[in-house]
Amino acid sequence: MNIFSCKIIILIISFSTFLTKAQESHPSRLKALVNYKIITLKDEQVQKDKIILLKNGKIFKFISEKEFDEYQIADSLIIDGHGQFLMPSFSEMHAHLQPKNPFHKQYLKDFLGYGITRIRVMAGNENLLAWRDSISEGLLMGPELKVAGPLIDGTPPLWGKAHDGPVVDEVNKVDSVVRMQKSQGYDFIKLYERLPADVYFAFLKAAEKYDIKVAAHIPLALLSKPVIKKVFNKKSPSFEHLKNFGPFVTCSEIQKVEAPDDYNYYGTELCKDPDAFKVKQVVYQIKANNIWICPTSVLWKNSSHKEVIENLIETEAFARMDRALKNWWLSSKDSGQRNIPMDELSSVFLEEMARQKVKVLAGTDFPNPFLIPGLSLHQEMQNLVKHGFSNLEALRAATIYPAQYWEEIVGTDYFNSGGDANFVILKKNPLKDIRNTLSIEKVIFKGKFFQPKTLFTS
After folding, report:
1. What global pTM score does this model have?
2. For a surface tag, which of 88, 111, 144, 368 has the fewest beta carbons within 10 Å of its beta carbon?
């Protein structure tokens, strides 16, 4: 029996609240998503005869049409996809948020409007923990937040007086810092590049002891005599931006350079002449040791190429940014060329990682220049494809792999029973063209439907 001939679809989407009335009225009853082309991302196939059952904002079951006949679900709780594409929602794996900036609450909605239902926030504080909890409790609209503790650096901290996290130069202080950030409820710790080498490794050991994840830039102290296996191994944290990778692959003679010039020397100058064989060696170690890399290639690309910047300035999305942010971005427009060496090194590494089939995490580093919240993550996926990743792998970098990183799924089975009902509904198939991730019709966050365009203006 054809289920669609015997069940009348009477779903009404309330555009004033962006939620289905049925979901608000019956939060604990089963709801069914039917007649969707489902992209599971297990492979490049599209499922056309599957139904997703939801309950309390979670995936209840992922079943066939035949199995669905066994369930008694009110017509008002059946949501017809009319043949549109449905896939897992996106994770932004590297961004910064500023609770004291009133515009950032709107940017939370912008992220959500672009199908992003989770953000890994890379430098945290008590206000961000409050935001995280308010979102979890439904008091603040925005993606789920995973928040790092206050940034940990050595002397002098890279950002000078602007640094507001721990400054640690002695191994005996490490344990208490990690224990404190864990007890305060942070989701992971972030290590910066002025840490002494022994302190950096002590942090990795303490994080393992307290079972908390680590994201890091490679410390400058390890770069004057870079040893690949010392940095890239099974104890490694997730590495961000491909920052300070240059010294491991340079053809140049490396000289030890002290602060304050070390940042530019190790981070930029030694990016300019990568050796292809050394790049292969580093990527091999990354692959062999299952090290998470968040390349944020869009960080370098969007800030350093005039034509990219000019195109972004003309977009409606850029017009929505607050005046102070736009002024900062525009003031940096002519100096962005300093990032070209990192953009070129990023391209070399991405191409090699695509060849060796390394799993990467998609992130951007918003609010750095010309990284429009939400849109830039889609540009990052496009960059991955441009550098050799398949459409499937680029999509996984923003969906499946973040879930693996947080140890929520094993393998690629996103549609496990009990998982959050977080999806994007697309007009076009992104497996055919990665740009189709932007053909968003609706976003489903914990079982609730949102209309993107209205979120952008709310």
Report:
1. 0.93
2. 144
